[in-house]
Amino acid sequence: MAAIELQNVVKRYGAFVGVREFSLAIPDEEFLVLLGPSGCGKTTTMRMIAGLEEPTEGRIVIGGEDMTEVDARDRDVAMVFQGYALYPNMTIYDNIRFPLRMRGVPATDHDRLIRRAADMVELGAYLDRKPGALSGGQRQRAALARAIVRQPQAFLMDEPLSNLDAKLRASMRVQIKHLQRELRATTVYVTHDQIEAMTLADRIVVMNQGAVQQVGTPDEIYADPANTFVAGFIGAPPMNLIDGVADGGTFTAPGVTAPCPATLQGKVVLGIRPEDCVVGGGNLTGSVYGVEPTGDMTYLTVNVGTRQVEVKAARDFRAGLDTPLTIGFDPRRTYFFDGATGQRLRHGS
Amino acid sequence: MTDALSNPGAVKAAPVTRPRRRRSRTMRRLFPYLLVAPAVIYLLGITLYPGLFAMWQSLYFVRFNNATFVGLENYADLMRDREFWQALWNTLVIGTISLTVQTVLALTLAYHAYRDPWVKGWRILFLMPMLFMPSAVAYLWQLAFNDGRVISDILMRAGVVDATIPFLSSVWLARLTLIVTDVWQWTPFLFIIFVAGLQSQDAEVEEAARLDGASWFQIFWNVSLPLLRPVIAVAVVLRGIDISTMFASVTIMTAGTPGGMTETISYFIYRTGFRMFNFGYASAASVVMLVLTIVIAQTVVKRAFRSGRA
Ligand SMILES: Nc1ncnc2c1ncn2[C@@H]1O[C@H](COP(=O)(O)OP(=O)(O)OP(=O)(O)O)[C@@H](O)[C@H]1O
Ligand SMILES: [Mg+2]
Q1: Are residues A249 and A209 in the same domain?
Q2: Is A37 in the pocket of ligand 1 (CB under 6 A)?
Q3: Residues with Cβ within 8 Å of residue A56, at least 6 apart in sequence
Q4: Which end of chain A is more exposed for a tag (fewer CB within 10 A), N or C?
Q5: Chain A residues contacting B, CB < 8 Å?
């Protein structure tokens, strides 16, 4: 297993920038998650690490060696493709066997390794089938098995659980985490599912439009977002972001007043997580737009001024539509961002 | 086409197009058939009719315009005819070698070229030899091998041989000239088909194989080639059917020499029909060839597709 380092990596497609100025050191054995919306450059970054795409600028170092110009075959990384990329002409057994054959693993070990990998993804019963005769989720697990059957320098997984049902996804998540610890494998994992990111990652890289927004542990990303993009992307539902004006220690927006650091002045954005809001109190005034009980809690949507605010209310909270109410929150739980750039304003907090 | 248009079906269709008249139930049902009738009749006229006529004629002894029914005697004679068997064998030998060589050659070229962007843009160029008339190609190679002695000359200058090679007096050299001609003209056709087939395969699968540690050749051998199987089967069958009717190059270059060892079935049929005017006999040979071709083609295609499926 090996550390991976990206140094000022840029990928341009003509004038379009797919990935801009990506610099990151991934220590050995780390589980790194690339998180971001569709089209933000996650797959592109991963393909550059794999050697399937050449960076327009920058270097890629794996295990202390500059691999930028090294062929994909000689980088010794295993990848789970977003589109599975199984060999349609081979059975699942032969699919999983292919990397062993090509990498010269002694034939006597093949069967044991293949069955172990297949059992890990609960695919033992399908080894005789060809990919065409499997469901999307089964194919995805076959692709996963093909990657974990050998011990490469690093694992690259591009949304490997996106096509599984909720239950299997949860169990596979635990398995992948366990496997990664067991194999002590450096892993780069792409997802746009933040639960997956939060639960699996040692560190998360949040990306948007080809640019890295923030790098940090799941706790840091959640508790200390660097800008409005990260704040608005993490959490379910994500942080409420309210445009307003700060003046003399008070933040105001239509229907909203809250204390803020006295150093803030002018246009700012206030952020407050739905789970930090309570019904009652005096920071927001509005009326009920929607009430969605889920059993263990109630999602409450409130019209405040011209915008809506999400609140996680108690599980027995009920209210009719358009009922006027107020929302309060602990001022220590608020975040402030620059109104123009969206960058976090930290002074004074 | 004028024949087809003036057929009774088309005439009947005319009133249907008149406005404000409801078509009868039968008319509505027949109308689509009437629309395609001219084309179908035309096609049947140029394919099915001659075929049936050949089958009918194969049961007769035909001399110009009088035909005597002889039953299966033509076929019985054919089975005893050494020249027929020789022609069949020649066709098989020349065809198999030629087809194998051009398939392997085309696959090799396609394997090396299909990732090349230049080939993608200019594949039409490779079709050039195909666009020549077969007889023109035959004359070209006739010139190169025999009349113009170009090949002998080049080989002599290169010091490979020291006299003009008598291409027409040796069985295998004569066959070689036919094979070279066919390979030259038709390898591009297979090449284009194989390149298109390879280019349409999922690039991600190749990338996966690359990451799994396969060399380019291993990827081709283990993944691309098996996936190309149905394409290869169809291309080879098409080419095989075509080769089994090899005629122009034989007529122009060897005329069956030496000693009938380059006489193909088509040339045999032509010789018995149009030189010896034994039409019934020639028809019987055509029918045998037709049946053989259908059986072989069916088997090859079926096998290729059955084992290609999951
Ligand atoms: N070959 C290419 N030519 C031009 N643009 C490309 C090419 N490949 C990717 N892009 C662009 O680069 C951007 C990043 O693509 P990428 O596949 O990395 O997205 P992603 O983050 O993996 O998205 P998703 O979550 O939908 O898989 C996209 O806007 C895409 O349109
Ligand atoms: Mg992607």
Answers
A1: no
A2: no
A3: A10, A11, A12
A4: C
A5: 50-52, 71-73, 75-79, 81, 83, 85-90, 98-99, 102-103, 129-133, 146
Boundary of a domain, candidates A198, A228, A258: A228
Last residue of a domain, one of A197, A228, A259: A228
Give the pLDDT of residue B4.
44
Indicate whether A245 and A223 sit together in one domain: no
Lateral strand order in the sheet of A4-13:
A16-26, A4-13, A57-62, A65-66
B202 at A interface, C-beta within 8 A: yes
Residues whose CB is under 5 A from ligand 2 (ion)?
A 43, 82
Q: Is A141 in the pocket of ligand 1 (CB under 6 A)?
A: no
The partner residue sitting opposite B227, judged by closest CB among A52, A72, A89, is: A89
> Residue A233: inside a domain, yes or no?
no
Task: Tell me how far apart the alpha carbons of residues B246 and B263 are, in angstroms, rounded to a whole number.
Answer: 10
A234 in a domain, yes or no?
Answer: no
Say which DSSP state A125 is in.
Answer: G
The CA-atom distances, in angstroms, between B229 and each of B56, B93, B118, B214, B244 are 39, 23, 25, 20, 22
Q: In the prediction, which pLDDT does B5 show?
A: 44
For residue A50, the chain B residues in CB contact (below 8 A) are: 207, 211
Q: Give which of A176, A183, A182 is closest to A199, Cα–Cα.
A: A176
A3 phi and psi, to 5 degrees? -80, 150
For A14-163, list the strands marked E by DSSP.
Answer: 16-26, 31-35, 57-62, 65-66, 77-80, 154-158
The stretch A207-218 carries a mean pLDDT of 94
Could you tell me the CA-to-CA distances from A14 to A52, A69, A303 in Å, in that order? Answer: 18, 20, 44
Q: Looking at the predicted complex, does its ipTM rise above 0.90?
A: no
Is residue A63 domain-shared with residue A210, that is, in the same domain? yes
Highest mean pLDDT pick, A183-187, A239-243, B59-63, B137-141:
A239-243
Give the domains, in start order, of chain B with CATH numbers.
81-309 (1.10.3720.10)
Report residue B114 as tokens: 């299909």
CA–CA gap between residue B9 and residue B261 (Å, rounded): 51
The answer as to whether A95 is a domain residue is yes
Q: What is the pLDDT of residue A223?
A: 93
Q: Do A88 and B207 touch (CB under 8 A)?
A: no
Tally of domains in chain A: 2
Residue A76's CATH number: 3.40.50.300
